[in-house]
Design a protein that fits this description.
Protein name: Quinone-reactive Ni/Fe hydrogenase HydC
Low-confidence stretches: none
InterPro entries: Cyt_b561_bac/Ni-Hgenase, Di-haem_cyt_TM, Hydrogenase_cytochrome, Ni-dep_Hydgase_cyt-B
Mean pLDDT: 85
Radius of gyration: 21 Å
Number of domains: 1
CATH class: Mainly Alpha
CATH topology: Fumarate Reductase Cytochrome B subunit
Helix content: 55-70%
Strand order of the largest sheet: 1-2
Number of strands: 2
Largest sheet: 2 strands, antiparallel
CATH superfamily: Transmembrane di-heme cytochromes, Chain C
Keywords: Cell membrane, Electron transport, Heme, Iron, Membrane, Metal-binding, Transmembrane, Transmembrane helix, Transport
Family: Belongs to the HupC/HyaC/HydC family.
Membrane topology: Multi-pass membrane protein
CATH architecture: Up-down Bundle
Length: about 220
């Protein structure tokens, strides 16, 4: 019978920010889709006290957006500088290994068993999370541009001086809004694939799949 020993793979802060970021993303998608298509009728008899419903939704979306920005900034800091996140940084080496790619593809096609890889992620996982980070950066940059084009004074004025280059790079506010929506749909596509692969790994391999981001513990075969 195979024996395993446990090792801590993710620190408490990494796990905490993972779940806060996940909740923020889901809430941002819900409020964002409503802003794009406000399907409720606040002037009806049912919503007679909700004349400012769209304003409430926009304010909630804005606050959640700044929460997401704060989480992403601190998460980037943990990835690059936190001693406990070393295994995540080491996983970069797997991306350049052809053997690691082939081995992992065999696993996902039920043709092989998982091999020990350097760090916390196999190459496909690392590239998937890297893609998510790129999408989040695009969503955040475009969201900041959309924010300062509504709120021109105070924080909005400061942000305009810092991120006007991105609006110019995109070719105008219309393209910024389109990019904001496009990156959001990219994140929407990432989520079900991510959940499926986590569940797949948890069922197929008894080394702590879905629960790793809860307990932080990975079970490694002796």
């Amino acid at each position: 019978m195979d024996s395993y020993h446990k090792t801590q793979e993710f620190s408490g802060l990494v796990r905490l920010f993972h779940w806060i970021r996940a909740l923020a993303i889901f809430a941002l998608m819900g409020t964002g889709f409503y802003i794009a298509y406000p399907f409720l009728a606040p002037h009806s008899s049912v919503y007679k006290h909700m004349d400012l419903l769209q304003a409430y939704i926009r304010s909630t979306h804005t606050m959640l957006g700044f929460i997401l920005i704060a989480i992403c900034l601190f998460r980037f800091y943990l990835f690059f500088f936190d001693r406990k996140s070393r295994d995540e940084r080491v996983a970069v080496k797997n991306v350049g290994s052809v053997g690691a790619w082939i081995s992992q593809l065999k696993v996902y096609f039920w043709l092989g068993k998982p091999q020990h890889t350097q760090g916390a992620y196999n190459p496909m996982q690392f590239m998937a999370y890297f893609t998510l980070c790129v999408l989040l950066v695009l969503v955040i940059l475009s969201g900041l541009v959309l924010y300062y084009n509504v709120y021109h004074l105070g924080l909005g004025g400061v942000l305009e001086s810092l991120f006007k280059w991105f609006e110019v790079l995109c070719g105008g506010l219309s393209n910024v809004r389109y990019l904001h929506h496009l990156a959001t749909w990219g994140i929407c596509l990432f989520i079900p694939v991510h959940i499926y692969m986590v569940v797949f790994h948890s069922i197929k391999f008894p080394d702590g799949g879905a629960d790793v981001m809860v307990s932080g513990i990975r079970y490694v075969k002796d």
